[in-house]
Structure formats: structure tokens, C-alpha cells
Design brief:
five-stranded parallel beta sheet, 14 strands, elongated, binds flavin-adenine dinucleotide
């Protein structure tokens, strides 16, 4: 067993998390002195293969088959099982996308392994990679060391690794044609889900007031709306607020919402789960208001106010109105 294999995702274009996973793979391959490999599966991969040829990997594979044209877990597991068995890598990395969540645990199980999912960092201990995952809504970090024989499978959380650390290179993309029978594919793909068009572009906002579950109920939303209005800021939210319908989905920030980079981001009653942090940690200045001094949001905040938002936010709004 040797090498780091990164399985990338391409469906009418690259999933940007693919390059984050490849950047992570590049770091580990360099640290452990192993070759870096990359693979992408599909039916039509001509454009993908052209772009893949610009990547800094020792070997790249276009895993091509007509039965992979539409994604199915059965097809992808069968294809990647054959590739992994052929290459025998020590480590198989994936971006932690919805598609990967669907097929990668079964792929790992085919090799008698489990998938280490949602990895936010990779440390090293005695030369071995140690995978860090968050537990209990980000209150605890757990370290996972792969001790079993056989390849290690790990999926990396969005935003945990930076794609811009990927250094350039060139490679030859090899064709890998797996053996798949139509009878192996037990599911029939339906129409693809499409995100609704966004009418609010938070990515362009320079000031954002973002609210989380600490606001307790919908009737309290005007408290943060007033602060946003006083500042001339856009209003945004963590996922539970949008899931509850208290603010529209298009105002959600995070891994399944928008990624923002304002000059100032106010995180009000937001705990700082990794899925939220990946959408806002690029803000220039982060101001967090939270009554829990141990809330993870304070780890990324430039200014932290420990206290009750129902006291702090109205007082802040008044001060801003006076100052203006
Ligand atoms: C696949 C997946 C995708 C996800 N995508 C996203 C995403 O895109 N965006 C996102 O935000 N989340 C996302 N999540 C959810 C994420 O894991 C967290 O559950 C969510 O971010 C928590 O939201 P929150 O911080 O508002 O709530 P909580 O974690 O419940 O935090 C509420 C905070 O409010 C504080 N608080 C309570 N009362 C007060 C008060 N009176 N004054 C001050 N502070 C108070 C508490 O101390 C706490 O820290 C995703 C999860 C999954 C599994």
C-alpha cells in the first residue's frame, strides 16, 4: 500500500470542495513522502480530464463508463472499488459533499474500513495522520488515528482546507474503465435538485448582522433587524433560523448557505459550528455576542462580548443611532 488518492467530484463542473481535498492530499503526500493521485468518475469527462491535467499529481485517472453518466451510489462504489483495489493507496480522501456522504461509507466498508467523515483538520503523530472531527455541536474535538490494516478513508469538511494552497503542476490523465453491469445499478436517478436562484447577494455585503438560535423565537427577530438597519448592514442567519422559516433560506450563511467576506460580521447568538464558520471566517473583523464564554465562535472572533443578547443588542443599536 502506498500513495494518497483524492477522489474529486465533477457534475457539469467541478465541486469547489474537490480542490480543498486535493490541497489537503498534497500536504499529506508531501509530509509522508508518498505519491499524490487523483481520480474523477463520470460518463462524459473530456472537459474534466483537460482541467485535471493541470494539477500537481503523480497520477490522475478519468474513471469513465456510460453507467457513471448519472450518479448512483451502486455505480460509483463499483467503479472506485476497482480503482482503489488496483492502486492500493494508503489513504483515500474525499470532499465531504452530499454525494460523497451517499457512497463513500459503502466504498470504505468494501475494504473492511469505516469512513472518517467531516474531518476539519489533519495533524500528525509519529509520522501518522491524525484526523480531527467535531463532536457535540463543536464543543469537543476528537482525534482519529487509523490503526487498522487496509486503506484509510476520510472525507474533509467544506472550508477546512484552503484550495489556494494547491501548488501548480502537470500530469497525464490515465483512462480507467471499470467493469460495471447495468444489473448492478439498483436505483434510478430522478431529476437533479437545483438550488433556487438567490435574490439576496450576501457575498457583496460589507457589513453583516447574523443571528442564531440564541434569539429564541421569531418574534424577537426585529431586535437584530433594528441593529442591521442602524448599521446599514445586511441581515443573515445560521441554518436553524432559516430552517424554522424565521428568515428566508437565501440569508443562510455556511457550508449549505452563502460564503461571505464582509468587513465586519456580527455573530449574535451563534455558537460557531464548523458548518457556519466555513461560510464567514473570511470576514475581516468578527464581532461575537454570546452568553456562553466557551462558545466556539469566540475562537474566530476579533471582538467577543460575553453576555445576554437581549440586553446587549438593543443598547448597541441605541448607541449606533446616537453616533450617526
Ligand atoms: C450537512 C450540514 C450542513 C449545515 N449547514 C449549515 C450552514 O450552512 N449554516 C449554519 O449556520 N449551520 C449549518 N449546519 C448546522 C450547524 O451544524 C449548527 O447546528 C448551526 O450552525 C447552529 O446554529 P446556531 O449557532 O444558531 O445554534 P446553536 O448551536 O444552538 O447556538 C446558539 C447559541 O446562542 C447562544 N445563546 C443562547 N441564548 C443567548 C442569549 N440570550 N444571548 C446570547 N447568546 C445566547 C448559545 O450560547 C449558543 O452558543 C449544518 C449542519 C449539517 C449537518
Amino acid at each position: 500500500m502506498n500513495g494518497v488518492l483524492v477522489i474529486l467530484e465533477y457534475r457539469d463542473g467541478w465541486n469547489r470542495m474537490s480542490w480543498e481535498a486535493l490541497a489537503a492530499g498534497q500536504q499529506i503526500a508531501a509530509q509522508t513522502n508518498q505519491p499524490l493521485m487523483a481520480a474523477v468518475a463520470g460518463g462524459k469527462l473530456d472537459d474534466a480530464a483537460l482541467e485535471l491535467a493541470d494539477k500537481p499529481v503523480a497520477r490522475a485517472f478519468a474513471v469513465r463508463h456510460a453507467l457513471l453518466d448519472e450518479y448512483t451510489a451502486d455505480g460509483f462504489v463499483a467503479a472506485f472499488e476497482q480503482l482503489v483495489a488496483t492502486l492500493s493507496p494508503r489513504l483515500v480522501l474525499f470532499p465531504h459533499t452530499y454525494q460523497v456522504r451517499d457512497f463513500a461509507p459503502r466504498l470504505a466498508a468494501r475494504f473492511g474500513q469505516s469512513l472518517i467523515a467531516d474531518v476539519i483538520a489533519i495533524n500528525r503523530e509519529s509520522g501518522q495522520p491524525v484526523f480531527v472531527r467535531q463532536l457535540l455541536q463543536g464543543k469537543l474535538n476528537a482525534d482519529y488515528l487509523h490503526t487498522a490494516t487496509g486503506p484509510c478513508f476520510a472525507a474533509l469538511q467544506a472550508g477546512a482546507f484552503r484550495a489556494d494552497t494547491l501548488t501548480g503542476g502537470r500530469c497525464t490523465v490515465e483512462e480507467f474503465v471499470p467493469h460495471i453491469e447495468a444489473s448492478q445499478i439498483r436505483s434510478q436517478p430522478g431529476e437533479r435538485f437545483r438550488e433556487s436562484a438567490q435574490t439576496v447577494d450576501l457575498t457583496a455585503a460589507s457589513l453583516i448582522v447574523s443571528v442564531g438560535r440564541g434569539i429564541k423565537e421569531e418574534a424577537n427577530i426585529p431586535i437584530v433587524e433594528e441593529l442591521a438597519a442602524a448599521l446599514g448592514a445586511e441581515l443573515a442567519a445560521s441554518r436553524p433560523i432559516c430552517d424554522n422559516g424565521w428568515l428566508p433560506m437565501e440569508r443562510q450563511v455556511g457550508s449549505s448557505g452563502q460564503t461571505v467576506a464582509p468587513k465586519v460580521y456580527f455573530a449574535i447568538g451563534i455558537s460557531g459550528a464548523i458548518q457556519h464558520l466555513v461560510g464567514m471566517k473570511g470576514a475581516k473583523t468578527i464581532v461575537a455576542i454570546n452568553k456562553d464564554p466557551d462558545a466556539p465562535i469566540f475562537e474566530v472572533a476579533d471582538y467577543g462580548i460575553v453576555g445576554d443578547l437581549f440586553e446587549i443588542v438593543p443598547a448597541l443599536t441605541e448607541e449606533i443611532k446616537h453616533a450617526r
